[in-house]
């Protein structure tokens, strides 16, 4: 029998023996109102009286016999309650990645939607994690990161940007870059502060800014090259702007902000005393140009939080090891928020992450070479199928125009692609404040093995027809 453990409570597998038989096969965990164990105990005089909140079986549960249903009915009608959520999150639904991955499983589709590899990370990093566990490094780490990892992050940052930072006061290790983003926003943004986003944007940005009560101003990057609309940025940025949230290389488009674009952003930030939160998780997946951290530009380090992670570079997305780099006066707010979000990140994985970040340059060169080959397979295939494919200079994503296939919008196209073709893509309208702006675009990922990519392309060639 499966067990259900609640903190400080009894093991449900043991106490299930106290239940009348009619309850046992139909008990399901749902989101309905709890009832008290004492209600059941009162019907079973031999049981001890317990106050144990559990979750009531839903009305869709089935009973093995009519008599069991009758006994259940004695407890009265089952009241279903609406799902509850705070107003700041009311507009946000289940993430598109969860929805599409569920459909992929249901329809046995090849998943080129969610950005996680279908191959494993390098053995030398996994072995380091195993060794750390065996060595007993399994208790809480200090909140802002173990010394080995902080030093490795500082060394990598110095190598990439030329900036020397203090591992102890200018780095906080987080549970993935998503938590680094959340800690940065919650630690440095006050309700009503204006933050500028570039659309399309990673979906957690809007949700986290909403939780912080920020005022979001959105500037849209337009295909085909998704260039920075400088005049639009100049018209939007002001003394009321608290921060710009930047992502380069850019998810979902694969765009990399050029040095000229970053310099223009920097000048405007300095002139208007604006912070930059820079998400750089794809910095090692740059194909056509070198990645530039905006913090490395003159006058920018003191107003920038640089965020990164291990998962994309080492194909270990499930480890959730990330970090934020900033001068002490900014990192203080990030640390404070991090302390009450997760406090500390997985200890043995931090030791392994330190080993990973000390990898030789040859590792990154092979990584780029491998992904460049995968990108060519997908891009060439998508073009052959009939998509209009937009340039991707970095990340492991490609954005295409789906309209040649005659579906009304991106969501309809992606549903058709899964159910009728057997391939998953992500509708990009979820990455815009104005969903209409993204309705003609969908995103594919090439962080899959070559066989998977070729199989997906073949399915689309066989089953997708231009209209």
Automatic annotation (TrEMBL):
GO molecular function term, any single one: kynurenine-oxoglutarate transaminase activity
Cofactor: pyridoxal 5'-phosphate
Span of domain Aminotransferase class I/classII large: 109-459
Pfam family, one: Aminotran_1_2
A single GO cellular-component term on record: cytoplasm
Keywords from the UniProt entry: Aminotransferase, Pyridoxal phosphate, Transferase
UniProt cross-references to InterPro entries, sorted A to Z: Aminotransferase_I/II_large, Kynurenine-oxoglutarate_AT, PyrdxlP-dep_Trfase, PyrdxlP-dep_Trfase_major, PyrdxlP-dep_Trfase_small
Protein's name in the database: Aminotransferase class I/classII large domain-containing protein
